TrEMBL record:
Domain of life: Bacteria
PANTHER family recorded: HTH-TYPE TRANSCRIPTIONAL REGULATOR RUTR, MYCOFACTOCIN BIOSYNTHESIS TRANSCRIPTIONAL REGULATOR MFTR-RELATED
GO molecular function term, any single one: DNA-binding transcription factor activity
Transmembrane domains' residue ranges: none
DNA-binding residues (ranges): 39-58
Gene3D superfamilies in the record: Tetracycline Repressor, domain 2
Protein name from the UniProt record: TetR family transcriptional regulator
UniProt keyword list: DNA-binding, Transcription, Transcription regulation
Pfam families hit by this protein: TetR_C_14 (PF17754), TetR_N (PF00440)
InterPro entries recorded: Homeodomain-like_sf, HTH-type_TetR-like_transc_reg, HTH_TetR, MftR_C
Domain HTH tetR-type, chain residue ranges per copy: 16-76
Organism of this sequence: Streptomyces inhibens
Length: 200
């Protein structure tokens, strides 16, 4: 049986679930015991899979987190696409961010803060985080273009997508490194308001 149009097949959905399970296991281990102290064997054992299975899904240890880095991309874009077109963009993006964040399975705030710090300080993972941000920008472009009534190849639309992702990333990094962290929702709201994107 073929997959419905636009929907992954059952086999592909199972692969995606396995990738995300490996990623979330790796994220927990990296957060709890550090990136360098965590081995591929540790991740495979904690995930209940063989090393062979691990390497079927991940070329190297630093690739294990990729699904965690990218899982919010589609969620945020999908949520933003459902927001009313006449809703101020700041409010729409904030609501989409809040909704997509609540759908993620890494719910422990302190673990999430440690993970963001790892993503920002381990060069191999930071490269993948930056790549995930660029992917999110590319996915945001058609949604923003539709809201703005502008062509997708518009420089202004691409700049807006870049500014939005950078604002969210900076807010998350700031939250992760605070000794007494503020509410992450309030930080993202401040970051988006600072951009004054509703005036663009």
């Amino acid at each position: 049986m073929t997959a419905a149009r636009g929907r992954p097949s059952l086999t592909e959905r199972r692969r995606q679930e396995t990738r995300l399970e490996i990623a979330e296991t790796a994220a927990a281990l990296f957060s709890d015991q550090g990136y360098d102290a965590t081995t591929v064997e540790d991740i495979a054992s904690a995930a209940g899979i063989s090393l062979r299975t691990f390497y079927r899904y991940c070329a190297a240890k630093e690739d294990a987190l990729t699904p965690v880095l990218t899982s919010g991309v589609g969620l945020l874009v999908d949520e933003l696409a459902t927001r009313p077109v006449d809703e101020p963009l700041t409010s729409a993006v904030q609501a989409a961010f809040d909704s997509s964040a609540s759908a993620r399975r890494l719910a422990d705030p302190e673990q999430a803060r440690r993970l963001v710090r790892i993503m920002g300080t381990v060069p191999a993972i930071r490269m993948r985080w930056l790549a995930a941000g660029r992917d999110m920008q590319d996915q945001l472009v058609p949604v923003l273009a539709a809201r703005k009534g502008a062509p997708e190849d518009s420089m202004e639309v691409r700049l807006l997508a870049c500014a939005l992702i950078d604002a969210l990333s900076v807010a998350m990094e700031h939250w992760a490194w605070q000794d007494e962290p503020e509410d992450v929702v309030e930080l993202t709201r401040r970051a988006l308001n600072y951009l004054r994107i509703d005036e663009l």
